[in-house]
UniProtKB/TrEMBL annotation:
Positions of the NADH:ubiquinone oxidoreductase-like 20kDa subunit domain: 14-151
Species this protein is from: Mycobacterium basiliense
The protein's name in its UniProt record: NAD-reducing hydrogenase HoxS subunit delta
One GO molecular-function entry: hydrogen dehydrogenase activity
Gene3D superfamilies the record matches: NADH:ubiquinone oxidoreductase-like, 20kDa subunit
Highest taxon listed in the record's lineage: Bacteria
InterPro entries named in the record: Hydrogenase_assoc-protein (IPR051349), NADH_UbQ_OxRdtase-like_20kDa (IPR006137), NiFe_Hase_small_N_sf (IPR037024)
Keyword Oxidoreductase: yes
Entry EC no(s): 1.12.1.2
Alphabetical list of Pfam families matching this protein: Oxidored_q6
Keywords assigned: Homeobox, Oxidoreductase
Amino acid sequence: MRPTTLAVWKFASCDGCQLTLLDCEDELLTIADQVKIATFAEASSEMVGGPYDVSLVEGSITTRHDEQRIQEIREQSKLLVTIGACATAGGVQALRNFADVAEFASVVYAKPAYIDTLATSTPASAHVAVDYQLHGCPIDRGQLLDTLSALLIGRKPRLPAKTVCTECKLRGVTCVVVADGIPCLGPVTHAGCGALCPRHHRGCYGCFGPSAVPQTATLIPLLRRDGMTDGEIDRVFSTFNVASFAAERSKQ
């Protein structure tokens, strides 16, 4: 049987999600004969043209060239999977969406006229159809491996729609809000991290983005009750998935 052709693409990002894939080297060896890595610049200089069975896309769309390139990748890919907060939500760089990018460029760069960038940082799904999304900053290793394995055998990946609160309950983690009054975004955050922060006695920071039906308007009074100021609340929602959380808050 012909091996599945896999391509991995980078847009505006820190490369952390690609490194998560590289860190799976032992597990990937078990499926090496079933996968042909056609393009993965982080790992190899070999670049094989499409079409591709599966494309993994890391990073947000921040330039006109990005807009063109994501369209080309979509056309060449049977399945397109976005990986990480940058690709699924625009990333922390989407803070630019609420400010003046030209002003930022004038402060940061000696010759801002050389900078060709869009005013916004957007997820791939704002430009092309996306088949599956792996949330997180970075993505979860187990979720990535399950998704790749599923796609190899033609099964739909198991991508949970529950919240971090559910993961805490399933793992027997004591609720940091109830027990200690620690502010936590777990009730409004997409599952997938395995309740990493609450397991270490810290509130959830929303790395995996808003859940399917995030009740942020209900959570915010509880965050105030637990000692957060309005400024701190704005900041905690303005990190890895700032654009997604802002969109959800505007609805409520």
